[in-house]
């Protein structure tokens, strides 16, 4: 049986829907709902786990590293808890190896939008 969408297309569709929904909630309500962050975390782990155990572990490490990286700015009040959970979900989607690159991209985009 052939899939209608390839694995990478499913991954990209999930990523666009999740980040777009998060951005929409953040702009409209100045908050990102917990259910949306949880869906992003679970979706990222499940999509990566579907491709194999090494990717599952990479996803779990990305989730932990993404949240841990933003705990200090959160403790100083520079970020909200939704932002920390969002970066954890994005870390779960992309995996551990992307965390440094994503941090730079998010910092630059945050500075440009401020």
SSE map:
Layout: H1 7-29, H2 34-50, H3 53-69, H4 71-75, H5 81-94, H6 99-113
Structure at a glance:
This protein is mostly helical and 114 residues long. It is built from six helices and no strands.
Counting copies of identical and different chains, the oligomeric state is: single chain
Number of strands: 0
Segments where pLDDT lies below 50 for 5+ residues?
none
What is the helix tally?
Answer: 6
What is the beta-strand fraction?
under 5%
Based on helices, strands and strand pairing, what is the structural class?
Answer: mainly alpha
Gyration radius over CA: 14 Å
Shape type: globular
Please bin the fraction of helical residues.
over 70%
Rounded mean pLDDT score: 90
The description of the largest β-sheet is: none
Roughly how many Å apart are the termini? 49 Å
- SSE pattern, N- to C-terminal: HHHHHH
Describe this protein's structure.
- It is a single chain.
- This protein has helices at 7-29, 34-50, 53-69, 71-75, 81-94, 99-113.
- It is an all-alpha fold and 114 residues long.
- It is globular, with a radius of gyration of 14 Å.
Keywords:
80% helix; 114 residues; mainly alpha
């Amino acid at each position: 049986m052939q899939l209608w969408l390839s694995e990478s297309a499913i991954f990209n569709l999930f990523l666009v829907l999740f980040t777009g929904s998060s951005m929409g909630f953040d702009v409209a309500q100045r908050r990102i709902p917990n259910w949306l962050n949880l869906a992003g975390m679970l979706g990222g782990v499940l999509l990566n786990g579907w491709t194999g155990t090494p990717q599952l572990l990479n996803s779990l490490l990305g989730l932990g590293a993404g949240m841990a990286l933003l705990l200090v700015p959160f403790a100083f009040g520079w970020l909200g808890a939704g932002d920390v959970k969002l970066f954890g979900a994005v870390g779960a989607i992309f995996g551990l190896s992307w965390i440094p690159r994503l941090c730079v991209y998010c910092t630059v985009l945050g500075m440009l939008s401020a």
